[in-house]
Structures are given as structure tokens and as C-alpha cells.
Amino acid sequence: MFLYNLTLQKSSAIVCTAYGNFSAPKMHEIVVSHGKVIEMIRPDAEGKAQSVCSMECFGVVRSLAAFRLPGANLDYLVLGSDSGRVSVLEYSKERNQFERVHLETFGKSGCRRIVPGQFLAADPKGRAVMVAAVEKQKFVYVFNRDASSNLTISSPLEAHKSNTINFSVVAVDVGFENPIFACIELDYADADADPTGEAVQEASKSLTYYELDLGLNHVVRKWSDPIDPASNMLIPVPGDTDGPSGVLVCAENKIAYKKQDHEDVVTLIPRRVGMPLDQPLLITSYALLKQKDYFFILLQSEQGDLYRVTLVYQDEEVSEIQIQYFDTVSVAQSLVILKTGFLFVASEFGNHALYQFLSIKGGDDADLIRETVEIEGETIEIPHFKPRPLKNLQLVDDIDSLSPIVDAKVMDLAGEETPQIYALCGRGPRSTLRTLRHGLAMSEMAVSELPTNPGAVWTVRGSAKEEFDKYIVVSFTNATIVLSIGETVEEVTDSGFLATAVTLSVSLLGDDSLLQIHPHGIRRIRSDRRINEFTPPNKGVISKVAVNQRQVAIALKDNSIIYFELDQANQLEEKAKPTVQGEIAAMDMSALSSGRSRSLFLAVGSFESSWIVRILSLEPGPNFMQVLSRQALPDRPESLCLTEIATGASSKDGGQMTLFLYVGLANGVLMRIAVDPVKGQLAPDFRTRFLGTRPVKLFKVVVQSQPAVLALSSRSWLCYNYQGRYHVTPTSYETLEYASSFTSEACKEGFVCVAGNTLRILTTDRLGEVFNQQTMKLSYTPRRCALLKGTSNFVIVEADHNCAERKVKEGPDSMEVDGEE
What we know:
By secondary structure, the protein is mainly β. Helices cover about 0% and strands about 55% of the residues.
């Protein structure tokens, strides 16, 4: 039996990365592999890493590569996985996901030594890709176009070599000549056949060039040259008109430039001051920045130090490798330099980081300290440097990563009814204790205390053309205050709103007039400050309201409804006055989308021997104000929300919007019912979810420029579309009582909420995530944790090998590390 597990939250560790333009030209994006999930990340203009799409692959993605066909402006993505197949994917903007273009089988499934997938290299001109195994097997696939300009892939061309272990595979930049792939290989045939074990000591690595002959359609072993036995990585050097071509071979303590028919050029890697000479230093990752007439390579050592490498060359003859200390960041699994001036660091342990380049010149020669050492009778000058704070890079964003989780406990220490996860994460000084809570994180932009508890809050713009909200209207039990939004939020008295009554609704009509509805009437404030009043007949009292840009419906306490529409002269004209049997508990109508002048339906929740929700027709004609459909409810409807939400790709990505009726019940249950947008029929099947112990209040909000619903109970929930999927997620925040959308220059998308006697402006962080985190830094690698019985105190055991001694100097707040306070 074979089982597949789905985790509560996707893996946050990054295995490999690929950089390219996948969604549109000049859109600089990074595709990362989280093992069995691939995710596309796009830094925005403010330098924040935004997740564009995330896909479950149901397999282990071991390697990624991007390639672009000659003349094209978008990149394809090639995957090496445990499926025994090579996958070519293309990003679909309409569906917001990567779609399969080709899937070619070459071997058995599983992560095996001789089945390719561990190494992947794409020709810089997009003509071919090599997929290699740890041992023996290498396949080359040729890409081309057919008559319809569709991508085609050839049958696999073998480049196998028995008794050979591969350590690194890259594509050499040779312009439009036959594609060449370079490999670090170790031939163990003699060692395998030698029973004494002496041949193992003599086994050597070699740099091998494999050439794809496009004319004869086969792969040949073109060139092989012995290299240092400690070589671990190859780095391709730009060629054609951009550089001298060839590769850099990284080995212990040194880097060598190698190319066929070219003398080797070797340089030593600068070391930290005080680092023992017998301790080897390896390069573990690299990134390349290539411009029209300039390129440099950024290397990272296993200690996290970054080096800037440039080549001195003339006519493809390299004379010197220049290497300078650049900066120090966390040890990376992969580095990516974006052409927009950012450096993405996929950390091996702890949070991933996005840095902005302040300078690309690197350090000065004054930063290097050259020490002369005599080794085996030969005098060698070894460059050293002292690590320093960031000088050429500035941290602009980080992405939470729990990798690796050393230990974890699940318990409710905070008394929140929902257990928390307490996880020990990271390694060394980047270790943390993280508290994970189920729900979206909410950030407080502002908190303001009010004299008494408000009952409701709304935001409204001054006109439809304005980008940001102009007023915040707060309603109390017997009064209303109006706050003006600017650089500061201040109370105003000349807005035209009635301040001596409780407010039921505030909105902006289509003619840029403001509408205030209170229990004793409707107050309309025109753009020229003229005020129109409407009073219900027979001293009626308004209890419920439904309003959009051109339609207004009010329910009176005598169970009658008065329905208005804006006519061509922008006057509120009374259209109908139907009577509903039983108490009216809630009602709503949908907002007007672009091109529409009328919402076709009015949803009314009322009591008629049992609680029921009806859909009334608002379309002029024989069915005007007639019941189109109804649905029985298990309890009293506290609020209704009729809105269009995308359940697949968002509308801005070409997706279709679906009309839903959300019903918040008094027993804390949320119902979601699909509505036929033409006939107004309620779908027979509906979704329910228990949100909390309080009656559910529903509010229309905006998330990522798309309609969403905020449901408030004893816990707040957000119903929204993200990355082409519909989410209903709790928020990790205290109980809220009322909410409205909020937008200003300082807060592009947020909510203004009432909690107790405070008014709060909140924003959501990290949409799509299941847990939000609170982090406490640790000094050393955590090993185990335990809870002291009868208390809420944690005991954490931390230990690191050969670490600096930490002494308490004077009191718990003063510490000394390596002699520095």
C-alpha cells in the first residue's frame, strides 16, 4: 500500500531555485522548490517578496532550471524529480498555475543513484537541457519549435559513462555553437576492482565536456582534464559576446578557471582572520549578474561569507581571477541575483531573505589582510579579512522558514481554547523558539480609544474617482461622530452627517452623494453640500438596510420594505413597498460591478413559522419584487451578504466570478449558498462552517483588489480568493465586533474595526498561510524542550560544538561574548 501525506502547512525549506520571466516579459520571478511544492515568488516595487502561485507536485522536486527558446520573451521551467521523467512546464496566467507542456519518461521512479533527476543544466540559448544522475546516466533533450510555434522535445540522447560519479553539472556558454555541458566526474572503476583499497587513494576527479552535435543529433565526450580531488562545484562563465566562456572549478581553499586549450588560472579564497589554516574552506553556492558589457559572480562559502569574483581577460584569454570579500549573510542553499537590484538568499537554516544592493563594487583591497605562510618549503600569500556588518546589501524582506524543526510541543499555554504549536527551529545563532497559532496574522496600523463602546463603523470616499477613503463614521447608541482621514485622523463637524442619532448605514451613491441611514430616516448629502431628507411614513422606524451605488432598500419595524432607485436625474425614487410576513432579521443586495446599473436580487431573511431566506427580484417586469427562491435556515439570520467572489482564478487574471449568498446565523454558523446570476435560484447544496459562539456578522471587504467577506464571531474569519483558490481562514487576533474596508496612502488595503471601546486599523499579513508565528531568538542550536509541570515555563537545552563562551557579567541584562559586552 502506498500512502501520500498532506501537511497542515507547506514546507518552508527551499531545495533549489530558478530565475526567469515566467508570467510576462520583464517580470522578474523566482521559482523555488519546497520538496513536493513549487512556488513562484515575485518581489514588488517596495521590495516585499510576494507569492504569486503555489502548486503541489505530488513528488520530490530535486532540481529546477529555466530556459528560453531563441527569439522568445518568456521562460519555460524544467523539473528534475523522483518520477523518472523530465517535466517541462509553462506558466498559465489565466489559471495562475504552471501547466505541463511535455512529460518524457526515461527511468524508474524514486530517488535512485543511476536514475537522472539530481542534476539539471539548461543551455543558455535554450536549445537543449541535460538531466543527470548521481552515478553513470546522463540524458540530453533537444528543444525546438514546430510549424505552429509550439515547443517540441526530442527523444533522449544518451551521454552515459559507467563507473562514474557526478558531482556537478552545468551548461557552458558557447553562444550558438554546438551546446556543451561540463561535469565533475570521478571514475571509480579501478577502486571498485581493487580488493586492497589502495586504488581509492589514487582515484581522481576530472572535468569533462560533453558536446551535443545538433547536425548529427548525438552527444560526444569532447574533452576531459584532471582537476583537484577536492573539487565540488562548477560555475559557468558567460561566453559569446558577454565573456570568455569556460567554467570556474571550486575546490578546497581555491578557485580555478578552466577552458579547453587554455592554461589554468588559479586564485585562493580569502579566509577569515583567525581561521585555522588546516581547516578547509569550500564554496557552496553562487549567483551570476550579467549585463550588456559587464558581469560578476557572487560566491558564498560554507561560513556565509560572500565574495565578488570578476575575470581579467582579453580576446577570451583570461589572465587573472579577482576575488573580493563582499558581505556576510546566512548560509544559503541557493542564491539568486535579480536584474531589479535584489539578492534572494534561500537559507539553509532559518528565514529566507531578500536583500537590496547598495553597491556592487565589493570591498576595497584595504579590507584584505595578506599573510605569508610557508607550506612544504613554498612561500604562499593567503588573503584574510575580518567579517563586518552589511555594507553592500540591505535587508528589505524575509520569508518565514521553520527549517529545521528540532523539537515541538502542542499545547494551550495561552488559554486560547485552540492549542498552539511551540517549535524549536534553526541552527546556531539563527536558532529560534516559535509559537505557531492557527490563523492569519493581523498587523495593527493604529489603535485609538473612544469614550464609550461604539456600535458600528464605516468608511466612505468623497467621490467615486477618489482612490482613498475620506471619512470614518463611528456610530454610538445615541450619537455619531465623523473622522476625516488625512496625514492624521481628526474629528470633523462640517461633513453634513447627522450627529445626534445612531447610524445604521453609510455609503457613497453613484452621483457622488453621501447617504446616511438612521432609524428615523434617510439623509442624503450631495456633493454641493445640499441635504435631502426622507422620513418613513406613519413615523415608521427603520431596522435593517441594504444599499449599493444606485439602489437602497430599508426594512421598517412593521415588516414592510421600501425600495428606492436613483433615476436619470439622480433623485432617489421610491419603486416599491412590499410587505413581508414575519420579522425581518437581515437583508442585503450585491454591489454593482462595472457596466451594471442595477442589482437584480434582494436577499431577505425573515421568520415565517421558521427562519427563512428569500431572494426577491429587483428587475423591472412581471417578476418585480416576487420571490424567486427560498431556503430554510436552522436559526435566526444575524446578517446576510450577497456578493461575487472568484473561487478559481481571480477576475483580474481572467477568472469567472460566482454570486454567493453568505448567511451568518445566531448560533455561530456561516452558510454559503451559490446563487444563479440570471434566475436568482439558490443552489440546493450549500456549505456550512462553525465560526464561534457568537452570532456571525458579515462585512464586504477588499483583499488584493478582489471582493472578500469578513465574518465576525467569537473569532474573526476571512473568506477570500488567493492564488486561484478560495480560502476560509480564521484570523489570529482578539474578538472584533464590527468592521469595514479601509484604504489610505499609508494603508493600501486594510480594515477599520471596533473592539470594545477601541477603534483599530488592521492589515493582513502573509495571505494563504495556515499559521502565524511569534519568534524568540536563541543563542545556540536547541536540542530538546520540556514544560515544567504545574507552570507555563519551558526548559530548553541548547548546545553547539566549539562555540564561543557566553558569560553573565553584571545581572541578567548584561552579557559578554568573546570579550565584548
